[in-house]
Fold each of these.
Amino acid sequence: MAVDAVDEFLPAPKMAALGLQHVLVMYAGAVAVPLIIGRALKLSPEDVAFLISADLFTCGLVTLVQCIGFPGVGIRLPVMMGVTFASVGPMMTMAATADIGLLGIYGAVIASGIFAILIAPFISRMLPLFPPVVTGTIILVIGISLMRVGINWAGGGLPMLTKVVNGEVVTVANPNYGQLPGLGLSLFVLLVILALIRWGKGFVANVAVLLGIVAGAVLASFTGVMHFEKVAAAPWFGLVLPLHFGLPHFSLVPIATMCIVMVVVMIESLGMFLALGEMTGRTVDQKALARGLRADGVGTLLGGLFNTFPYTSFSQNVGLVGVTGVKSRWVTATGGLIMLALGLLPKMAALVEAVPQVVLGGAGLVMFGMVAATGARILTAVDFKTNRFNLFIVAISVGFGMIPLVAPNFFKALPHELHPLLESGILLAAISAVALNVFFNGMKGASLDEVVAAAKQADAH
């Protein structure tokens, strides 16, 4: 009996290599949030290091929940889970408020995780509002939005860095951004990946991104860009215990803010789950969506308990599934086990952390572009010839999605409480596409049967 590609077990060496590839492409994003929040809170270097280990440990734990699945929880698709960047802005504000602090943040995270678990079935019922013209547009915007991450990786990080100076959070220019050696390393990684995709066979082609990153890391070591001092200084083993910093504090305003963030996160996750359904050929129905979204809530609840932050499905790993063509959820489950190990073995975590962002940049351009290409492929199943309204849905929604990307201060004058919603281009594109589709095509154009039929048609292409 043939095994579905999503449920396929690969040989252990292949599983380990492919899982490590998933870890490498998400690692920089996974550790960025605890670094930013830890420094904003003026925590000691040891406490910041613990935040990173706690984050990696919980990434692995929640990834296993999402991939393996338990009754009512977990979408059972090749998903890697990590801390969402959508929570950074609100948590920075909480960090700067004396009566909230880290324990107040953890209280808000725990409460928002419970909230997400409760509302998951209601969010999943929104599936009929997402026909191919909507899902294709959202996934296209996800890919385009992620390109900013890949480009900044290639440039050497963010062009502006956040630092704490005299007790205040300020931004300063990154002196290493856009330097020629870093750009050269990114280009080298990109060329290696393209060569392996073009001329590699079988397993080698599947791990092209991993081999490109390894080749880039070796070159970075020889050129003095990759350093190993932190690896030598890191201990071999360290436990991650819950409530390490003390009992969380619960306050209404931080909780309400974080619950709004979770709604944003779950709508973005919905789009990613649909993208994975397209890539793997597995129909993602309402029950599957509810399980996946509930896992986001369980992950966020565990995040608050294990000294970290809200969790979501990582978009960059969706792109990697498209690049490799490997659809097995056991590959990402293996990645989850590796993340668990990194959380418990600080020296291993330090080794992966030592890989420069410019090395990851060359790989990011490939992976994130694949997400955008998936959105474009879904849109090929949309009737643009006889239904001209669909053109307007795509055009206007992409425009809304680009606002935070090209004009970060566009909504500056609006109330600060709305910024978590308005600063997500993916959410703006989703709201616009859903509203315009209902306005132009009505609910009859967005039935679940048509979603599934169009998904199969797109997959046939």
Amino acid sequence: MNNTNPFGEYDDGGDAPTSRDETEPRHIPVPRTSIEDTDLPLPTPAPTPFPSPPPSPLLLEHRVLKALLGAWALAACSAEETVAVEDHLGDCGACADEALRLREAVGLLHRPESLDLDPALRTRVLEACLDRRPPRIPVPFWATPYDAETARLDALLQDIGDAEWHAPVRLRWFDGNEPTSRRTTVAGVLTHLLTVDGLVAVTLGLDDPLETAADAPTPSARTEAFWRAAPFPPTRSVRGPWREQAHNLVRTVAFAGGGSGRLPVPYGGFELPLCDSMLDRAFETWVHAGDIADAVDYPYEPPSPRHLHAMIDLGARMLPSALAARRQAGLAAPGRTRHLVPAGVPGRSLRLEIEGLGGGEWLIPLDSPGALASPDHEVAHVALDGVEFCQLAADHVPPEEAAAGQVGDREAIRDVLFAAASLSRM
């Protein structure tokens, strides 16, 4: 029977030699003896050094402590001075009130700055680069607002999480004399932009994201058709097609050159030249990016002043036609003349003054779209902030609350403000 001896050596019970002589002493380590089991004295521990006494507080006169209040408010005192000042503030009410006033003043001097980049930063960087090396194929100036706004929206979409793509958003526009809305999600807003931008894509010979485009000529009809055709609610996957289409639009108009700006883009009931349509798409992108930012509780700034001015100019140029359409539908007061003022003939005018970002002045003809706006025939003057005018044109501000200043014909002012709200659409 095979076995193993207690020392870990194999023993078959026979005469086979082992690896160690039996007479050799076994080397088994003995247990160590604790000093506590002997009569030896225990070692004396090293003495613990006494902690150094805290520094004695500064004893300063009242006038010196009062002179240190400004430095204390700016956190510029030493540790000893800070302790002395704060101990004094607990005993002196006059100095405590002064310290509170100085600390509040310091808070006004150091306003918290947003971590978000300046919306004009991208434009400034591109302009600086292009000043050094002009582009071989430049983007037309009327397409740069769309390029900038799609890039800003894309940066916002990159920062939101999966769940936020399903955050509720309400699209708003003005229908007749009443505001209306449509409930959707962040992903649904992006599909709306994708399908309406497709009108420009078709004009440029690019693919249409909507397969049933013939049955949906208007922006709202295209959006509803896309939502109905989708088997599932939109998700973040729509970002890829939207982003690719936006890049293709900018690239195509750059290769087509500035002359392509005269191509007509149909919107169902009306059409815009391509140069104005790209501005319109930039405006819609900014407005709906703001809707998305509100839904996910994220700050979002207006466009750069130059781009905002171009968007305001487009709205001001569309006002006469919008006013005439509302008058024809019986939603605005009839003109003061029996017949429409012929094209090129001066007629009643309203001065639209836009203050702040993208500001300027526009004379709006009131009697017919073709009439010549003339300062000699000015009957009203309206002043609005630039961003507020754009919010009015997007039906994010009620017409009754939009104008900051109104002088002149109240009926004409009301008609123009409601015409501006009617520029909005889904």
Amino acid sequence: MINFQFHNPTKVIFGKNVESEAGKEIKQYGAHKVLVHFGGDYLQKTGVLDRVHRGLTDAGLEYIDLDGVVPNPRLSLIKKGIELCKLENVDFILAIGGGSAIDSAKGIAYGLANDFELEELLMGNVTTDKIAPIGCISTIAATGSETSNSMVVTIEEYKGQKNLKRSYNHDCARPLFACMNPELTYTLPVYQIASGASDIMMHTMERYFTNTTDVDLIDRMSEGLLVAVRDATLKAVKTPDDYEARATLMWAGSLSHNGLTGTGRQSDFASHKIEHELGGMFDVAHGAGLCAVWGSWARYVYKINPARFAQFAVRVFNVPENFYNLEETALKGIEAWEDWCRKIGMPTSMSELGIEPTDAQIEEMAIKCVATGNGSVGFFKKLNKDDVINIFNMSK
């Protein structure tokens, strides 16, 4: 186990009807005017937005709405939000939704607290530990952005390059509070449930596949989370109003990405970097994109440490262990993951995802991918441009 720091100050308010408490929470931080940030029209249709507005008014707070968030949130809307907040003297940002709404809110909060262009932060040219106060109401179990330090945003154009999906991570971006009501996820389409659950699995798996030794404590915690999500997803896609299944997924989403399962080890995140390029170029659902490429990544790298893949197979997917051939066990574990993906309606290749990149597009994605890591991505096995191209081709 290697040295680590773990800091997660987000207050989690979990259970039925907790979204109504957001106003009282915000008032405690001395705020006066709130930007309510969200996307789509489901919040209006379900009455969630009205309940939130009522809670803000009852707490003596003014508010202004900014909708328009889309999957793979866009920098252009974030910039619009920054200007709106400055114009309206907003001093607190409340996101309602999933990772896209929360990440977009984080971008607005960074923009309010700093005087640089947000592109420079996302491209790694500047850093900051300053951010305006944020709270959130989760309506999707997926990215875990409600308690994470991460923000992922699509830059539509930067110095001649288009649709760059880039991230910035800092503990200052952890929301002050997160209201999490599993019932708010009932109306999600099955595809979105499955895509979100896949992202939860992947956030843990990106940390689980490590070459750091003596990490059995977090291994066991991660395996328990993965098994619980594995089973809860199968229930949730069949029975939309299964509260316990939805509660498991919602809480697991936070636990998988709040940093806990990465303590004491070197995480990988190559699959995420690879998928970010798919998302940037083809605007695919993040979890579905991860499912499309992970099996190919796994087959490309598993020989670096077949014992770790075999452990995953046995402990998470109940694959019988072949003590004489760990590689066989490892490969069966990868197959078991892909079988699970298919059961919940997720793709295991780019063609199943509905995209067929050209060789030129694959090369472009690979170049952009490794540029985020100064020429390579990943730590389980460091991948250069040619490696990423090979993985993309395997995942066709």
